[in-house]
Amino acid sequence: MIPRLAFASLIARALTVGMTILAIALSVALFLGVEKIRTGAKASFADTISGTDLIVGARSGSVQLLLYSIFRIGNATNNLTWESYQDIAKRPDVDWIVPISLGDSHRQFRVMGTTPAFFERYKYRSGQSLVVNDGAIIDDLFDAVIGADVAATLGYIVGDPIVVAHGLASFTEHDDQPFRVSGILEKTGTPVDRTVIVGLRAIEAIHVDWQGGGQIQGQSTPADALRRMELEPQAVTAALLGVKGRLKVFGLQRSINEYAQEPLLAILPGVALQELWQIVGIAETALIGVSAMVVITALIGMMATIFSSLNERRREMAIFRAMGARPRVIVGLLVLEAIVMATLGALLGLGLLYVGLTIGQPLIDSAFGLWLPIEPPTLREFWVLLGVVAAGAIVSMVPALRAYRMSLADGMVVRI
Amino acid sequence: MKILPLIALTTFTATPVFAEETRQLDAHEHGVGQLNIAFDGQQIAMELHVPGADIVGFEYVAESAQDRAAVDIAVATLAKPLKLFALTDAAGCSVVQAAAGLESEEEHDEHEGEHGEEHADKEHAHEEHAEEGHAKEEHEDHANEAGHTEFHAEYLLTCADPSAIADINFSYFKSFLNALEVEVQIITATGATSFEVERDSPILDLRGMF
Fold first, then answer.
1. pLDDT tens-digit profile of A25-76?
2. Can you give the pTM of this predicted structure?
3. What are the phi and psi torsion angles at A236 (to 5°)?
């Protein structure tokens, strides 16, 4: 009896009820969306590097080193000299070491110089290796392997020429020494997708005719001469390092951090990532707080609509009471209506979230390199939805109790 | 026999010159120790670095009998890792190697690797600093400038079933009343991570780490 009345009453006021439900739905979608982006970002960051024991670079901060070496966010304060690099590579505890040299760009994408070992050693998403989708990895001095996003955005195929620009966002180009796309990598969901990978020697080669930040007028060494040249870098940006046995990681880290000839920093990627979360944590909490406030606002909005509907429904309530409905029934009716609204709002919000994710997923991926997985709702999300419904029920108690007290007298008295 | 002290002398005199060219000093925060733990198969390697103030309450060179005794007791306590960092019993862990000693900041280059002996006797590690004339002088210089010393310990454990380790109970805080916090870094097969263990909640939960 009461459920039927409640539904009929809601349908009778379809427009206002619809608006209230929409407000709740949007707030729920926002709250769950923030949560999704937060966990998605964390997972995406954590998946970017795996299998590397230490990252070595100039002494700065561990978070900074992690960000510029792996995520290509920000820039290195200093480089790692080649002498120190070789010195570290020679240590008996070092299993493998891969240099990374950043600084040049191609269009909006970074160019990274490294050794072929990078393709073998760089691992993401708990141990997955890079896969060449088309073509082959670097063989010639002027070969470049490009990430999936580079290929997709610029429409490159294997064999296309690439001209690397000197520095980032600069107009001077190494157009005398073009590269050739030798391979395109499979999509990884990591910054590698947006990177042009060339050989470490190639980075030196394109700078042979350069001095003091500019090309020497009229000088251009032929490519074949460069191929024969002994090209040794003076410095690299950072190095990824694997240690022979986990037990030796801390010892090697300590000895690199205490390296007397050059101020160096060795970090454990996982630990640096954790430090990053600590910094980001405050913003995260603020974001969750704001979106929770939006949900509360929507619920208070619902309370306001119920309150104003009480005025319209004075007669209705009075008639119920006159027909023998107990005050309890009036309360039950109003609370039930609120629960129905909150439930519909929560479910619609969940639906909006998935619609939003489906539309936004590729956009967010291309803009921020963040791949948000579309997965069934988690237990946590289920509790959030249940919480919204429960909060809706509690909030509706206020107008319901008012109706409880007023229903009979209010509706019967003729007001002029 | 004559060459050996000479070499020792050159290393000692060379170090200060070097220190003038590139000056660096580790961070040193009283109350906060660092514990690194690496899990590999059945082996667990731990290294602990704690400011002297946390362990014995002072960082000057122990000269009075009382201070020396305090350092000796501390080193002896630090040489028993399972009493300080209690691992879950079911894991069946035992100590393979344990070494502890007191060091000042710039000297550990010379002393590294010297603490490797089985259950290194506390006398040895301690004597190096207190008895050896030159080292002592260095130490005093140091005490006048910065006055920071650190206890350093290295442990190698072996466990019958490391996956049974659910948590580490830091009884360490009960042994050393000035210690407030330990920054823990852990490496397992699943990667590296860090924790902060504080006096108020001295249990480090490791479930899901293996």
1. 999 999 999 989 888 888 888 888 888 999 999 999 999 999 999 988 888 8
2. 0.77
3. -125, 170
pLDDT tens for residues A282-327?
Answer: 999 999 999 999 999 999 999 999 988 888 887 888 888 888 888 8
- Interface A-B: count of C-beta contacts within 8 A: 53
- Using CA atoms, how far apart are residues A364 and A357, in angstroms rounded to an integer? 9
Backbone Cα Rg of chain B: 18
CA distance B106 to B146: 11
> From the CA of B111, how many Å to the nearest CA of chain A?
13
Distance in angstroms (rounded) separating the CA atoms of residues A80 and A241: 14
Q: Taking CB atoms and an 8 Å limit, are A250 and B187 in contact across chains? A: yes
Length of chain A (residues): 416
Q: Is the CB of A271 less than 8 angstroms away from the CB of B192?
A: yes
Q: Which residues of A123-150 are buried (b: 16+ CB within 10 A; e: fewer)?
A: bbeeeeebeeeebebbeebbbbbbbbbb
The residue with tokens 């509790």 is A383
Among the listed residues B146, B171, B201, B184, the one whose alpha carbon sits nearest the alpha carbon of residue B32: B184
How far A263 CA sits from the closest chain B CA (Å)? 9
Determine the Cα–Cα distance for residues B191 and A270; give it in Å rounded to an integer. Answer: 6
First to last CA, chain A: 34
- Those residues of chain A whose CB sits closer than 8 Å to some CB in chain B are 50, 53, 126, 245-251, 258, 260-261, 263, 268-271, 274-275
Q: Which residues pair with A109 in a beta bridge?
A: A106
Contacts within 8 Å (CB) and 24+ apart, A254-257 = A255/A91, A256/A54, A256/A56, A256/A88, A257/A59
| CA angle, residues B111, B113, B118, in degrees to nearest 5 | 115
DSSP H or E segment with residue A384: helix A379-412
> Inter-axis angle of helices A379-412 and A269-312, to 10 degrees?
20
Angle at A37 between CA A31 and CA A40, to 5 degrees: 135
Please check the confidence at residue B160 and state whether its pLDDT lies above 60.
yes
What length is written for chain B?
Answer: 210
Residue B82's CB: how many other CB atoms inside 10 A?
A: 14
Contact call for residues B202 and B169 (beta carbons, < 8 A): yes
A73 three-state secondary structure: coil
Q: Are strands A179-185 and A161-162 parallel, antiparallel or unpaired?
A: antiparallel
Q: Which residues of A touch B156 (CB under 8 A)?
A: 247
Contacts of A261 in chain B (CB under 8 A): 22
B188: left (phi over 0), alpha (psi -120 to 50) or beta: beta
In this structure, which amino acid lies at residue B193?
T
Interface pTM, i.e. ipTM: 0.71
Residue A199 contacts residue A206 (beta carbons within 8 Å): no
Give the C-alpha separation, B50 to B31, whole Å: 8
